[in-house]
Each structure stands twice: as structure tokens, then as C-alpha cells.
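Methods, example record. To illustrate the input and output format used throughout this study, we show the complete record for Pyridoxamine 5'-phosphate oxidase N-terminal domain-containing protein. The sequence lines were provided to the predictor; the line carrying C-alpha cells was produced by it.
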Amino acid sequence: MDKLTEEAKELFRQPWHAWVATVRPDGSLQSTVVWVDVEGDDVVFNTAVGRAKERHLRANPQVSVSVLDPKDPFHLVSVSGTAELELEGADEVIDRLANKYLGVETYPYRQPGEQRITVRVTPQRVIHNSGG
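The corresponding predicted structure is encoded as:
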């Protein structure tokens, strides 16, 4: 199992969009852009219950999360691992991400009846390039 270095964690701490790849039921990949952060040695992102990412991860928890430094296309980190889905604390996580990415205190795009869920990825494989 690989670990994130402090330099790799710093990429995830930046307000740069990441992309997540999940596995669809037919085995093909779905990729989507997400807000992301690190908690300890884990990478976290947030979605809503019922969305494709959440459905795919319940069926197959394999996931990849990557971020690219917008100033240096060779400075990147990509983490692959197994997702853990967490309902508890998910509203606080999306609010924290909204603050990081939008500078607001609460997530402004909540839909009526929406239940948020946090996806926690413990790295099993890390690819980190320090840049060019």
C-alpha cells in the first residue's frame, strides 16, 4: 500500500478540481470532476446519495482520484484505492469543500431532500510527479 507524501497531499489541499473515475456496472469507467481534500492520509470528496458516483461505488468500491497543478501539467498526483462511503458528517464535509472552492460558509447548491455522502479513499497506489 502506497502513502501520500506531504507534497502530494499539498496538491489535494489546493482549490484545484480533481477528477474521479468509478466503474459502471458494465465494467466501463465513468469520470467526473469533483471538489477534493485530504483528511489524514485519506483523500475525500462528497456527492449526493443516488448519483452515479455513489451508485457505482456501492456496487464496486474501486476508485481513482487525480489532481493536476494548473500551472504545471507535469505536476500531478493520482490515487487509486477502495472507497468507503460515510453518511455521518457529510454535510459538514460539503460545507468545508464549498468554503475551500467558493469561499462560502455553506454549500449553496443543495437540493430539497438531498442526502450528502462523503467518499473516503485510502490510497493503495499513488502516482506522484513533482513537475517539470
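Annotations derived from this record:
The radius of gyration is 14 Å.
The first strand starts at residue 18 and ends at 23.
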